[in-house]
Amino acid sequence: MNSQNVLYVLISFPETSETFIAEEIAALHAEGCAISILCMQSATAPGNHAISRQVLENSPLRVLDIEGKGQIVRALITALLKRPRLFLPGLLRWLRLGQKRWIGTRVLTELPALLREDYSGICVHFAARNLVAATTLSGFTGIPVSVTTHRFDIIDDPLPPSVARAEFHKCANIITISEANRELMQAKYGLSREQIQVLRCGIRTAFFSPPEASKAQEGSESPRTLKLVTIGRLEKVKAQQHLIVALGHLVQSGRQAHLTIIGEGPERARLERLIREYELEPNVTLTGSLPQDEVQRTLSESDLYLSTSESEGIPISCMEAMAMQLPIVAFTLPGLEELLRHRDCGLLVDQGDAPALADGIASLAADVPRLQSMGRAAREEILENYDRTKNAQVLKRLLANVDPHCHSRSGGPRD
How many CB atoms lie within 10 A of CB 46? Predict the structure, then answer.
């Protein structure tokens, strides 16, 4: 099977919080794949990410736009004429969706375009309504679907577990970004370990590369300001208030420290009030959203990266920081345990424990050789397992090794 012409079926694109999708598409394009994008809806927070702009320049994008029942009927007639052997199984698959049939109905109008373009594979991110849309299209066209799950989609259940289980069995490739996710999917959906492949998100390791010049703290015995940084939307699930509390503990103990928070969102006013409450205005900078080159520069000037998310897969921002040779101090999450290998690349403390976060920061700041060793180990981990180009090459091989006549190689029921 030729993997050069791939359709991404997404809920929306581009989204500020999902730049990993843009990175993956850009990497596949660099590997010679032609990519098109079909979205269920327009982007809600498109942002200004350089890679997203690059993707939009190279990959045609269209958003579903249903004109009426007549358009759907014409699309079904086209599918019947072009793929008569698949039409009845595809129709039965669609009818079996029950209450979720409306999702499949929305994408039926795309059948003529899919058959005309001769796509070799469909890629989906998240086990959500776009997965139902993709498998509906696959049922009528025979184009195999590869789905990648992250974290929220298998925790918050945008699809009921019974529906998600059935949809997974229609996929040629079931991919997830972490071993923790694989274990959860085995237990929740009754899938075997062999049915689920772990393929981690990747970053541009050449772009996120530490400066050649040593940081000021290296080899210096004089006290200086400890530079801390975090990146993420200012929203409740990121729990950045704990960063302010931890910084307050550090400053009260006599530590010179400054925290840069990169990102924007609805929690900004709350964080600003907390900063004033702790009298930390000189110690905290809220930058808002920044372009990638400024993010890279800020990371290069920092000593430690902090994360307080309450729920996350494997955070891209942590990968970028580690590639810049920054150790991580974070609240414990399953994906972060994999990423950090606990004490090799950083420290993990209990969720919500701001004093423990402050203690972890202080312990690393007081042990410069350990800080430097963790930084080197962090970059080595990213180079080995989270390089964008390497992981895109693996994905390309997965897409190429699918039997186009086999709608599922997961071993589950087939329609």
Answer: 15
* Helix, strand or coil, per DSSP, at residue 62: strand
Instruction: Show the beta-strand stretches assigned E in 3-114.
Output: 5-10, 34-39, 61-63
145 φ/ψ angles, rounded to the nearest 5 degrees: -110, 135
Give the containing element (helix H, strand E) for 123: strand 121-125
Closest CA to 117 of 141, 93, 139: 141
Residue 264 DSSP class: -
The radius of gyration of the chain from alpha carbons, rounded to an integer in Å, stands at 23
Q: What letter would DSSP give residue 221?
A: -
Q: Model pTM?
A: 0.87
Structure tokens at 27: 């990497």
| End-to-end C-alpha distance for the chain, whole angstroms | 21
Q: How far is CA 194 from CA 54, 211, 410, in A?
A: 35, 41, 8
Peptide bond into 14 cis (omega under 30): yes
- What phi and psi, each to the nearest 5 degrees, are found at residue 67? -90, -20
Beta bridge partners of 230: 261
Dig out the tokens for 298 from the structure.
């800020």
The rounded distance, in Å, linking the Cα atoms of 23 and 389 is 10
CB 59 within 8 A of CB 29: yes
Q: How far is CA 172 from the centre of its chain?
A: 21
Task: Determine phi and psi for 332, rounding to 5 degrees.
Answer: -65, 130
Enumerate the β-bridge partners of residue 331: 349
Q: What is the pLDDT of residues 38-88, one digit of tens each?
A: 999 998 877 778 899 999 999 999 998 766 666 888 888 888 888 888 988
